[in-house]
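Researcher: Structure prediction, please.
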Amino acid sequence: MARRRRVRRVSLDPATGRPVSPWPFAGLVVMAASLLLYLASAAIVPWWVLAALLLAWAVLLAACFRAFHTAPRRPVWLGIASLALWAAVVLGGANAFGWGG
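Model: Predicted structure follows.
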């Protein structure tokens, strides 16, 4: 019987040899999804609110890129914070100020 070759279950970075975590990529997917929500809210919110939301999203994206290697799970939490910020501003503004109709 032939011996089976061992297969590594962990992906390694070829440059450093360290394991690659899937969490930062999941965080960037959540950030991309939240960008779609931010851009779709252009029909509801005033232009200055949209500009402030996009600026806040860009700051959160920069924080995601900064934490990509040092804290692999932080981009997921930043993506969730981005969704929570959108919900608080857009839904709260729609209720309080009557945006969108």
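Model: The CA atoms of residues 11 and 17 lie 9 Å apart.
Researcher: Thanks, that helps.
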